[in-house]
Amino acid sequence: MTSFTSIQDAINKASGAVSIRGWIYRERGSNKLKFIVLRDSSNIIQCVFERTKFEKCWEEIDHLQVEASLTISGTLKQDDRAPTGYEVQVSDFKIIGKSENYPITKDQSTEFLADNRHLWLRSRKMVATLKIRSTVFAAIHDYFRKEGFYEYHSPIFQSVQCEGGSTLFSVDYFGKKDVFLGQTWQLYAEPAIFGLEKIYTISPSFRAERSKTSRHLTEYWHAEMELAWAEFKDIMDHGEKLLKHIVQKVLQENKAELEILERDASKLLPTITKPFLRLTYTEALKILKEKCKIKVEWGKDLRTIEEEKLTQLYDVPVIVTHYPKIVKAFYMTENPLHPDVVQGCDFLAPEGFGEIVGGSHREHDLEKIKQRLLDQGEDPAEYEFYLDTRRYGSVPHGGFGLGVERVIRWICGLENIKDAIPFPRTMERYKP
Asked: Same structural domain for residues 33 and 174?
């Protein structure tokens, strides 16, 4: 049997006999020569067919089209004119799967590419993004495992809301209507810290947000952690170290992919080499007013535009802390010195990419949680399982949630978050 090598391994070999396989990325030719740029998951390479070697099957070769799959054997040689500096002089080939009139060509509309997402995944930019995505997921697991966290999973079907009822996806659960897709693992994760102490997950989350922005998905991947015996600073420290670890891994392992995406990797270096900037919400409003000429009324949450303007001022992520209690969730601890603000934080990515992580110290006072639920129009009786965690041996604890696609969008320099996930789900799109 023929022993095939990846295209990148063939390029690394630099010369000699090789056998490769893949799909046609580009093709052109004349009456005497056919140039096929073959791609696989590792790279692309030019393959040259000479008519004098394939006279009997030249018509078949001449009609090969983009995305046909082939196996090719031949001799590798260096050629600076070729796309990756090398080409294969073909001596043998086999057509595995034909392709006729592949629908994706240059200058297609965004909507057309979305309708044909199952094919657009083959594009070099999508492949590069998905490789970086794989590195990001691996780095998250790597960080938490090395820090002594246990991987833990909460249910997707949930009976309570955590992040606001207006963004819940209701599910008909065998005739029961008060069942929802999980917005976060948090309310089901906190009970586990009293056994495992340090836990994390990477799981889908669902938000029914009626938003059409470049940073919102209705289904996204959520990396979350929860930590017993934690102070607020511990949560911020872990978030900063995790992001540094992720970016460092991508810069180490995905240089070629960043180049394909035309991402200036030097813009990511400060995230590794410099400490993140930590500002209170009140300080952030002052900076917005003085440096960006944007006035935000105290007590209003920061909008996308304000996050973008703030982060364009810095080359590292900005951690905004101590938001007003009225704009944050019921489970966040009040600041002991200023009870009108909470010990919560948002990590905002530089270059205008905005929020990528949200975290807080969790309120462990039973009566305060009950009152906050009532203030937000919730029935504490629906949260009895959660309230039990405060009745029996409660301890200071906290955690955060990281939007994986938002981190990927920032690292890759993508205009839209929809390109950070294979099949994006938005308010207007649920297929293919």
From this structure: no
